Amino acid sequence: MEDFIRFLGTSGGRFVMAKQLRSSAGTFMHIKGKNIMLDPGPGTLVWWVDANPCIDLSKTDAIILSHNHIDHSNDLNVIIDVITKGGWTKRKPMLFAPAECIEGENKVLLNYLRNFIKITVLKACTDYAIGNLKFKTSVEHRHGVETYGIMFDFNCKISFIVDTKYFPGLIKSYGGSDILIINLVMNKGKDKIMHLCVDDVRKILSEIKPKKCIITHFGRTMLKGDTNKIARMLSKETNVDVVAAEDGMILNLDEFSRECRDRQMELDF
Ligand SMILES: [Zn+2]
Ligand SMILES: [Zn+2]
């Protein structure tokens, strides 16, 4: 397996995190030889060490924070300290995060760790690179704090629609995604809560029509409604292959990247 995504945690919402009904660890990716951790929530270090040597902490290239909420950023500092051996390693991992995570009242990064890493501030709809791996941010999400989704574009386009309320701009921003990973927190929508619900995801999938969708970041009502059942229902309704993530689940990307590469070659020809 060359490229893969490993969901170290799948919890979303305070209740599921507090009771650890699902792990609140982040999402690890190995793409084009790069090791990336997205949103290291509480418990990430424990789950990550547990997954060693399959995913080797000392070879981390980048950490990406989508926003500063505690369920996405709690283990950031301890992970930076561990992977840089307290600043004694030569290689400096990269940190990509919105300005709010780095500076200001609710920053999450401790000052003493700043020199151990290369910091890049994320902005909306901007291109970034981790060596030869390119990614792009989405439009700014509607989530109460500065939040951006992430889109990797190598052989295939893999996008993470992280925490947000639904708004039509999501469709345009994430259009053309081959694999969509969506933080689906609520079964039924509630006006004041800035998260996606099942109806929102149905709309997104019907419009974007990705090849595959992984739903994750489940709140209490999603667990109660049975995440697998909801995934099957969404698959049937939208004709998109929808899978509900489980803690520790591995998504093998090789097959997708091969398929997309072949398609691109046909187009080029
Ligand atoms: Zn969240
Ligand atoms: Zn959030």
From TrEMBL:
Gene3D superfamilies: Ribonuclease Z/Hydroxyacylglutathione hydrolase-like (3.60.15.10). Coiled coil: none annotated. Pfam families: Lactamase_B_2 (PF12706). This is MBL fold metallo-hydrolase. Residues 35-218 form the Metallo-beta-lactamase domain.
